[in-house]
Structures are given as structure tokens and as C-alpha cells.
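Lab notebook, bench 4. The sequencing result for the construct came back, and we need a structural model before the next group meeting so we can plan mutations. Quick request posted to the team channel:

Model the 3D structure of this chain.
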Amino acid sequence: MSPTGRSVALVGPTASGKSAFAHQLARDLGGVEIVSVDAMSVYRGMDIGTAKPTKSDRNEVPYHLLDLVEASEEFTVAQFQRAARQATREAWARGSDVLYVGGTGLYGRAVIDDLDIPGRYPDVRRGLDERARFDLAGLYRELTERDPLAASRIDALNERRVVRALEVTLGSGRAFSSYGQGLLTYGPVRVVQIGLDVPSEVLDERLAARFRAWMDQGLLEEVADLAAAPGGLSRTARQAVGYRELLRHLEEGADLTTCVNDAITQSRRLARRQRSWFRRDPRVEWFDDLGAARQRVEDLLSRSETFVRD
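Done. Here's the predicted structure in C-alpha cell form:
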């Protein structure tokens, strides 16, 4: 990205209050645009269960990376990275600062660390998936021959990672390991990350109340409409927490109360995974006081050294 503007990332687990905090801050300050870092908010029609900003919210503050594709389509992290780069450049060109807001850790790292992301090679992948069904050991041996460094970093029994490494190596003609350590290391700070720290027991209560409120707002009907639309939901969209559990009720006849409880349980597990992801990054600055967090963000957006430089 060109070094032409300031950016700050607001991170933390789902239901930690990031969205409301960011919206109020951007509305109060003016000249701040929000780039959503949420893997599921890119899908049109997935509104309630992603806590997507309302039309009223979007009239108050500029939002980006929402409603990019139909829920029947796949959307990769590489596509997200390109869209985020474009949105950021355009915001900077308007003289705005950027707040990256969301809990999808991989997507956030792709943007704020400008990761070199390998492409997708579906034709190659199909052949590898077929081979993996009966000869995963052979695939691992091939990976060891073609890219010994990548093989040394991957468990020979981890089918997903072995196949992905070979897919990239064969499809791109470039060793998978040449894309760098990626998520295994943390480089210099390009974009300051502010983390909102909320106790687990508070998150648990919020998540249960939020999901039940979503049900009252029509989440089940939203999922039913998406499932009935041409193309239905893509493999990725179907995995969204809440949507996945309600699809079991709609498509398999599972008990609705059980599915709702499962969705709440999975939401809590997701929050813990997200917290662990961000906690591993030593660059995140954590705040349990919203006033102090706001002061830090305002300070960062007022300083020239917050300009992103590569």
C-alpha cells in the first residue's frame, strides 16, 4: 500500500464491543472510515447473524467490505486482501483515516501485515484431494521432495495442510515455503492494533443474550431465505457460526432449541479461539477500559508516525 494515510486496527473476540466502539468513535471524530474485517460480512443477505451495520449506521459512517458477493459464492482471503487494499487506498485518497474492525484474525493479518498469500489452483486441488483419500503418505513424500522446508513444518498426517502446500507448489511453480513464515512470526508494526479485553464470563452472557435477540429479530427466517435462494449457501458461508446450526434444523429436522443452544456454545468457543489468536500477537495493545482505548486510538490518529509505510 502507498504510504498516504493513517490506519489503526481494533481487534478482539466477538461480542467484545468492537463494532459499537468503532462506530461511535468514527462518527464523533469524522474523517474516519471503517473497513470491516469479518469473513462472513462479505456475503449479501447474511445480516442478522453477522451483526452487520444497519443502513442507518452506514449513513452515519462510511463502511467497506460489506455485501461484496452472494452467499452462494466462495470468497477467499486473497480476494479479501485485494478488496481491503483498494478500500484503504480510496479512503486515504479522500483524506480519511481508516479503522480496521473485526475478529477474523487471518483476514486481519493478511491486511495489516500485507502477507504474501498463495493463490488457489482448483484443478490441481481436485486431483490432490482424490489422491489424499488413499495415499496421503505418498503426497507427503512428494512434498518432501519438492519443498523439504514446507514438509518439515507440517505434520505428515495433516491432510489439509499437506494438500494445500502441494497445491500451491504445483500450481504456482513456486515452493510453498517461499511465501515465508506467514502466521508463524510477527514482524514490525505496520498498523497498531488495539485490543478490547472483556472477561470470559461477560462474553458468555453477552453471546447468549445476543443470539436469542437475533432469533427474535428473524435470524431463522434469514437462514431459510438464504438456503432457498438459487445456489443456496457456499461451503464457506455454511460454516458461519449460528447459520451452520440453524441449517441443521432447516435441512435435517434437528430440534430447534437444541440447535440454538449449540449455536450459543459454538459462539462461545469461537470467542475463545479469537481471543487466543490475538493474545499470541505480542504487538496488540490491550485495554479493559473503553475510555483509555478511545484516547489511545484518538492519539494514534493524530500522529504522523501512524502513517502506514512499507
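The radius of gyration is 21 Å.
Will bring this to the meeting.
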